[in-house]
Amino acid sequence: MVVAGGSTAAFAAAVAAAESGARTLLLEPTNWVGGQLTSSGVPAVDEAWHTIREPGTERPLLNVAAVARTPENITPNFYKALTTIRQPGECWVSRFCFCPDQFVADQLRTLEQRAGDRLVVWLDTVIKDVELDASGRRVVALTTISRTPRPGVRGLGYDVLPSRDLPDWYSTADSERFTKQVRRVQASNETATVFIDATEWGEVLALSDAPYLIGAETTDGGSESIETCGQATVFCFVERLHEGPADDPAPPGASAPGLGFGSYRHRDDAWEKVWTYRRIRGDGPPSPGDLCLQNWGFSFSLGEGGNDYPFGYLFKGRDATANECDDWQGGLDLQVMAAAEVRAFAWHRWFKDHAPAGIDPRQITLDSETLGTTHGLAKLPYIRDTRRSVGLDGFLLRLADLTGPAEQRTGTRFADRIALGAYPADIHPLQCAQMPAYLKEAHDTLPFYIPFRALTNARLENFLVAGKTMAQSFAANSATRLHPVEWSSGTAAGVAAAYMARTGRTASEALDAIDEVRLLIAERTPVDWTFPLSANEQ
Fold first, then answer.
1. E strand or H helix at 320, and its extent?
2. Which of 5, 211, 243, 379 could form a disulfide with 288 if both were Cys (CB 3.0 to 4.6 A apart)?
């Protein structure tokens, strides 16, 4: 088992595969596993919060939030990790707001160690190349680059912003900052080897020229997409409130257009609401010692917002991506990434300068330690959408499979269902792209299912996907991209891949044996919904 990682789903898949008996290698591009939970700086777990209501009367019909938050519907090791967090912050966006560095040390490393020697993790490791067999249907090797910071490099190598450092990460040559180890991860000649793409950027899909989608489709589940039209990205950061004035490591003078509280602009308590929105340490009113995670959206109707960056798409189009494959660097637009970094620093400056009476702006500083960098931003940007697989026989999970009337109770009840999800379609659009009309409406989802086919690719046989790279439409991804669904789909992918490795079966053959596969997955994550009485609103 080889998991090309960087996402929340990747870590869940690696743990599940190892605990299912597979010798597992996880390739992690940063020095923290966990993806959006940790290295991308979104440590407030997004759970369903909505209720399906009767059109016209608004009478509540189905409390989706109550269903999603029922412990029986959450992957057990994920639920345990969340409920054993020490000193969670008091925020209002989630039940679980926490410090990423602490979560890595206390929760994720515990899970990694429990998997024993069956799980090996290569940190600070990126993918450079993918090799297929003569048929073009099996992955036989990955070329990887692991970097080690040289003595004297600060922050374990996280002292330079990603937009400037990524070309070094993907270079095979030693540099002034890093020594490199180039390794070829090859499929075993003795037993079957299965590869999972659970990267944040869909890198194995791109490098193998496997069927994939990028951008928003003109219709839900269609094959035609607008390649420059996706979701906004954001660089998250943490602010600390001190007893008195303190030195701020943030670069001076950062500015950006359209900064403001957005839809909260007319509220007297706007600043306090933003401060406590994703607070990861502290409770009550804003107080010295508080740590505030900043991930504030942008209001298009008002033309202002926080550190969300809606002014450019992070991913290159198909042709530019294909042209990069000979010297792969992630397939990203680094100018967009750099502009998102600038906006994050500008939002920090604007927000601290608009502190209410009683708080001196000089009391607020970037807190680098919590995110494990010296520059103060997260190690990598938060990714909301990415390159997505096209599944067996062209399968795509559609938004239509996640929605329906309340009396339906769940989304499409696939025969090959292997994971659960619940969250409304949530799109942070780009200002520079015109979203198709069907994406401009709010879409509340039912509790929905992830089918095994969403974990597959139409061409590659010894290969699965998980998390944002799943075979799904852009609209479906907007509801499946959240932490609990990534963990659930990752767990299912890890168990299924271990089954494929043990039996030597392809993804298509595993689909034919789905009843057997589902039983194994059900031992590690729920595959059918449990409905509590509180869900039945009348």
1. helix 318-324
2. 243
Which residue in 332, 322, 367 sits closest to 162, CA to CA?
332
CB 444 within 8 A of CB 477: no
| CA 82 to chain CA centroid, nearest Å | 17
Instruction: Write the CA distances from 418 to 24, 257, 379, 493, 523, integer angstroms.
Output: 21, 44, 32, 9, 11
Q: Which residues contact 536 (CB under 8 A, 6 or more apart)?
A: 62, 63
pLDDT along the chain (538 residues), means of 10: 98 98 98 98 96 92 96 98 95 97 98 97 98 98 98 97 98 98 94 97 98 96 92 98 96 91 96 98 97 97 97 96 98 98 98 97 95 97 98 98 96 98 96 85 92 98 98 98 98 98 98 98 98 74
Q: Could you count the other beta carbons within 10 Å of the beta carbon of residue 149?
A: 17
CA distance 38 to 44: 10
Q: Residues near 19 by Cβ (< 8 Å), separated by ≥ 6?
A: 114, 115, 118, 524
Query: Domain spans of the chain?
Result: 2-85+103-229+390-535, 233-315+330-371
CB 236 within 8 A of CB 42: yes
